Fold these 4 entries.
Entry 1:
Amino acid sequence: MSDALLYLNGVTVSFDGFKALNDLSLIVEDGELRTIIGPNGAGKTTMMDVVTGKTRPDSGEVFFRGTADLTRLDETAIANLGIGRKFQRPTVFENLGVFENLELALAGSRSTWHSLFARLDSAGRDRIAATLERIGLAERARLPAGALSHGQKQWLEIGMLLIHDRSLLLLDEPVAGMTDRETEETAALILDLARDRTIVVVEHDMAFVRSLGAKVTVLHEGAVLAEGSVEQVQNHPRVIDVYLGR
Amino acid sequence: MPDAAWGLRFWLRFSLAGAALLVLVPLLNRGVAPDSPFALPDYLVPLFGKYLCYAILALSLDLIWGYAGILSLGHGAFFALGGYCMGMYLMRQIGTRGVYGNPVLPDFMVFLNWKELPWFWWGFDHFAWAAAMVLLVPGVFAFVFGWLAFRSRVTGVYLSIITQAMTYALWLAFFRNDMGFGGNNGLTDFKDILGWDVHLPSTRIGLYLASALGLGLAYLVCRYITRSKLGRVLMALRDAESRVRFLGYSTTNAKLLVFTVSAVLAGLAGALYVPQVGIINPSEFSTGNSIEIAIWVSVGGRGTLVGAIVGAVLVNLAKTWLTGAFPELWLFVLGGLFVLTTLAFPQGIVGLFRRLPRRRAREAAAPPVAAEEQA
């Protein structure tokens, strides 16, 4: 065991004989910004599924802060430990307003009983307003989230992670489907966020990965192929072979 | 914003609708000369009372189907369980006036040669006990059923199917004489409720008023839940359940709570229904009954509380008329209604009316349009 924030050791997940993760070991330190790249089917999304409790590994250990065994907890419990996740496809609550989406994500008690009697206080209202400003959706607070453009939904989802006070954020392809300008803004937002929390970004877009300038882990066939700075990884012969070269 | 849900405008409308329900029927029945064209004959009073019970039942289904996206096709079972609890109380009130004149045992038990009252009939001679059971039996049953289903993440069509299986199983069970609930014939031949003769017009007015109050209460409970933060959690999980879990909410608990509340309301509806129709038998558990409730809700407007009430009353008015005038047509009309609403106006009758002002608002072009849905 280590005192790393996120510790995966020998994690294997197989679906009908196909090994989505094959003896994967990965350590993310507290406060780190990490990008994970890899070709399709390399196990990036499965890795996130394992960390967030959606998928149970067949073998291996997954620990958060060295003590919480994530293989034994469900999604709700893991989320309440402070691990947030943004999905590949933006999933906001389309029939609720932008404001209500943030209200549900706002840090606070998650108990069903509490939800039944909860009242939004002015501090909460202020936080929502501040977050709306930050993600550029203040004008659209009253719109149903389903009416937002693709890029705006991505931002709303990031806003929902922001307002929740998570110590670890997992972002699955946060700039998928964004325009160049939106991608730049998102990179700036992530770098800003990374100052006071740990972030793991899974991404295909190499320009975006470069702009984050963080430590890169390359996954291939469910295991780590290489790790290092963007330059080191890009010059790694096997990485060029399986991924960048194509 | 959530406070607007309980503003003056709401209470004004609620009181007006409530007063109309409470005053109109008794007034036309008791306050108008019987030969007047406006007079409401005595036999229609329990019929209206019955519609109000159906409206409560529709509300209870709408709460979980319209808001949480859980289509229960077994809600008739909770209604029937509540009805049986009330029926047991009414049976015990018969006393020595039964055919066999046994002061303790209902007629069917004497007929089956039973010597003493089964333990689960104990206490039902007291109204307070029966009233508690009306709420507790469906509630506890739904809690256990829901806990098993939601914990195992049974959702969507699979949940609908197991709720159908649940009501079917209860139907078969209640048919058995050994169950101790009167078998095929069920419980009937009631005499008094709280000392009043159930056949008297004044008692029927009283039962009608109780149903109207029950409907008002059920509406307020549903409105409170759907307008609370929990209501927004429910709507969120209806659209993207796993996302709600990743936000840290226990969707199992949220669904379980609302499923239980919904079953309690259905039980209340059943308890108000039984003294007005004078019988409860296993046919109330039939699978078709539970499906009909879903049709009321979808015709009226799923996901709007008013819609559930409107749908239940209108579809049952049509049923009363058609099963009298063209009995062979009714099932075709019912099926046709369901297909038509699903295809042509998925928001139901209420949605049809709401589209008009909303379109006008859009033409006035003043975005952003509030997405607040009314209930």
Entry 2:
Amino acid sequence: MPDALYRGPPEDGLLIAPLDAFTAVYHRASGITHLLTEPAPHILAILQERALSLDSLLDRLERDYDLADGTREALAARLDELVEAGLVARL
Amino acid sequence: MSDDTRSDQDPIPVAGPDTGSAAGPATGDSAGTPTRRRVLALGAVTAGAVVSIRPALAQTVGSVLNCEIPVPDPSRAGSYIDPDGKTVPARTKGAFPPSPRAFKGEEVKRAMANGSTLPGTDSQRSRAYVNYIRRLQRGQGGFTCFASLQMPRG
């Protein structure tokens, strides 16, 4: 697919609270709370800084973490979920 | 600017760099507080890492209880489930075949709350499946759904 870019909301657009296994994320724009599990909060944090393509995001995650299963497919699935939840925009 | 997809500058705050640069401040605390390079699992394609809670209570319940838990996780499709809930090779004696369909959060909640059997199962099989669901770890299909069932509703 073409290189779509993904972008998260601005920093003040979310209220984030770690809750043991979850990270609760309140999205001010929609008034919806989301419960995220790893790696969604990490992805979201990166995409709040800047818009990235799928490949750039994967590079970034590989740089910052030891990815246990760093497949492009899995990351695409995580991104799709975040897009569907309205937390990440596909540009 | 933000479209610079190859920029190498300003390292992400969520994780510290790989060498022990004194306690990377780990500002991405939403995700825990990694102070050094850590392992991150992207999870199975089908795992699911997001559950949304709608503002209205009725919708909240619907959203959580309509999520689904496959038994077993699609990444282990075909595995049998032993009575303790562990996945074992297909046709293992004493273990149960995979469920032909995923269970709804509501069905699982009910089975856990009052010991009723999951739809389409007898009591032993249901117990094995419930044990499997209790053992789910993050990154596995259904974990988010299962874990959200544990959240009190107010």
Entry 3:
Amino acid sequence: MLALKALQRNKLRALLTMLGIIIGVGAVITMMSIGEGSKQSIQSSLSGMGSNMITIRPSSNEPGGVRLEGGNIQNLTEVDVEALKRNAQNISAVSPMASSSGQAINGSLNWPTSIQGVSPDFFDIRKLSVQDGIVFSEEDVKKSAKVCLLGETVVDNLFNNGENPIGKIIRFNKIPFQIIGVLEAKGQSNFGQDQDDIIIAPYTTVQKRILSTIYFNNIYASAISEDASEAATEEVISILRETHRLRADEGDDFSVRTQAELIETLSSTSGMLTSLLTAVAGISLVIGGIGIMNIMYVSVTERTKEIGLRMSIGARGIDILLQFLIEAVMISVTGGLIGVFLGIGSSLLISSLLNWPVVISETSIIISFIVCAITGIFFGYYPAQKASKLDPIDALRYE
Amino acid sequence: MSNKILELQDIKREFKMGTETVHALKGISFHVEAGEFVTIMGSSGSGKTTMLNILGCLDKPSNGTYILDNINVKELNSNELARLRNTKIGFVFQAYNLLPRTTALENVELPLLYNSAISAKERKERAIKALEAVKLSNRLDHTPNQLSGGQQQRVAIARALVNEPVMILADEATGNLDTKTSYEIMSLMQDLNHQGKTIVFVTHEPDIATFSSRTITLRDGKLQNDNFNNNILSAKEALASLPVNDDD
């Protein structure tokens, strides 16, 4: 009450003092919102691909030796896939992948893209669905049938508006494929890739007709549950070590990564970045607090006569201390409130202008408030105490 | 039973200034009864400012006893002294000391804010009554820069009255005012005194003393004179007899 009146008497000064706090809080909230949004978006898009997904790649087993790119090493074959299907208890689906880039042609239209050769399980593992038509079957895999499904981007580039691609024949690297389905659109991935720029076909077809190889680029599997991921990974490693006939002293010539690990790595990187930015923003809160302390000292000096007067009509030391302390806290909390609104506003603005994902967490707002109050109390205490210790007689005489 | 508002017994006050000791008050005794209008006079260095601070409980004597409204201030701590100032004493200063950018009403309410026994509603009522008593009911929402010197001093007097103190303690209350306004204020003081308020007025101007009922003169820290006034002048009449100004 008294404090509010005192602040109202000099609104401009109060506002300028608050500026540090406002900017600090606004920045902290915006940083944390962007950080949280990015983290959650990464998590959900990676989970969207199947959080129990396990990715197996070939790699060099020369410890310390020259490690070649996984793409140059070929050691994953049908034998591995069969062994996994037969023996792994913790895995619910397996699909190899053999892929190639090339030119897709439909009459006079063509489009550079890539083809991924997989088994029907792939659609489960990667959570892909079909918006039109059907997925190819095990039969099609056995027969190396020349069938395929297209992503929307490929459809848009190879067919005219409105034309239904189902049943039509296109060529990929000169091999004819019949279109049996169109994939549900997935949009851009977090890493900027167009997930709809793809052709999917049976792996046998791609291996025989396009790549002429018996090897796979990778093998995907999904664990029966997220909790079973670790057990599944161990199983995969031991089964593959057997099929690859590795001796006990030889390292793995493949790598097995769970989706959970991938999410963890990306989340923690994103988390560290957010913490760093938030800490930097937090520094401006400290600066804001110093600003408050500064202004309160000036205020106390300016109002020395007023303090003397209040004491002469009956204010005790504690009354004066509380009055100035509450003024300081009011400045910091009001600044915090404005900062919160500013932070929320700028988060929403960034989200709509830049299309970055933004998640405004209540925790960040509550923490900001508490920090503001503490800042006000801490930085306001010393000036308030000085005020309360003034001698009324000297104060009244002050010019 | 005596109705002594103030009782001073051999009051001494010393200040240490570096290596020297200054004896501001060297043993002063007197008492003031309810309803008196006392002026305390003295030139600069007579100790009257120190006396004022002690009477107002802003300072404690180094020696001797000060009893205010039957309370001995010796044992009181600073919080208790503050309470005493709040409830028993009404200060009126030479420089008015009103809070700037604050209305007259809020200024008068100020002492009541430090009195937790009084509700907000009662606070406002008392403040309005006090401002009526000083004839400023039509200026409740004016801020000090919208009031003349005399009006500001009247607000200060209303503020001094609002907690219903046992005495009004005035320090050169007319020092910043012209003659006409001074007489208006003294007229108000006399009215309050006639209504029963005890007034202790510290001043160095002799013609102010003629409006009071008793004059105590200090000199070099000692009581020099203590005279009852047998010929109290009326401030109202003095006001009326002022020559009319050319620019009125």
Entry 4:
Amino acid sequence: MKPAPFKYLAARSFDDALAFKAQHGADARFLAGGQSLVPVLNFRLTQPAVLIDINDVAGASGVTLADNELRIGALTRYRTLQREALIVRHCPLIAEALPHIAHPQIRNRGTIGGNLCHADPASELPAIMLALGARLRLRSAGGERLLDARDFFTGALSTALHDDEMLAELIVPLAPPRTGTSFMEVARRRGDFAMMGVAAVVRLGEDGTCRDARLAFCGAGDRPVLAAKAAAGLIGGKIEHTDIETAARSAMQEVEPHGSVHASADYQRHLAGVLTRRALKMARGRAR
Amino acid sequence: MSTDVHDIVVTVNGRRYERRVGARLLLSDFIRHELLLAGTHVGCEHGVCGACTILFDGEPIRSCLMFAVQADGHEITTVESLADGEKLHPLQQAMHECHGLQCGYCTPGILMTMKAFLAEHPSPSEAEIREALSGNLCRCTGYQHIVDAMLLAAKRMARP
């Protein structure tokens, strides 16, 4: 239960961090909040030769609002997000999900970027990034690129990050007027991994007709799952009982849960239907 | 491979310590084995049980999920800081009176978690206390007496 030996490098700037990563590549891991990485180090499930501590990287943390977009530094801790007025006001979907993420001690240390790079398919934030249509800014010593969140998650604990890249920032577009969101999950105990969770986003026209919808699930496969058919079927309707039932049945087919000792795949599909119904009603009510 | 060592300076319970540590030394082990402050307990060593909770720059964290080298320049508070000589902290006194512990293994983590929580929420509801305790496992008490103790402590600490 002690990590294997590694070399510790403390980065004070993005330039430091990216130079270290360019030098050590796949032998090095970034150490952010450590709330997912240190447990697997302690178990020796991973034994990187080098840890690059980015906790003191200047400018990697914090939330700003510019050009109708929220920019969230990858090193921003959950606790900071919970206290951040810009998140509460402009991105209630993130605010609603935060209390479900682990426990206070973990939220004091864990970071949003570390969470996304760990890419646990049961985790809330990857699904939320998909529901929000977020983009991720990936930096390397040689430059940077922007990637849609849906292209970032390539499998369980796997991302599109190259060996010399780090996630620097998340860019979340502000929701247009008459947008409603809802996050819900079912877990065995508060703070546990979700057996199924859903992030719902709906946008209504002035007449109450659904103009846009997104449904993203966590705990639903080897990566966060967008239920594209379920969402597309809502557009043009008023999100009434039959629309919701159709969406719920579609979502149950679109999720790809594996089942576990805690919940069979069938039960997880059932939860996807239940949560879709509840979350759509909630989001619809909030959009008005 | 040669051991990667670093010189660090940390302030623990108001006292400054300078030490040379290996990179892979967990903060929990540093506190217990290097500083000989064994009040911080180590349960699961993967961030689940909460026994090793300390305050890091005033906020509760799991000390088994950080490395000692990361504490360089930071301030740590452990359970040893609570009592004033023989006089128990109100949290400890309430745990004693309400039978909030049996084996006591989880107690230091609970005390440090709740010290920070009550500072931020001086008059919490029972539901808020249960939520705040959700990251600390206790296998003896069933939590009821811990919740009772926290309600009592909050009441006493809120008094001017």
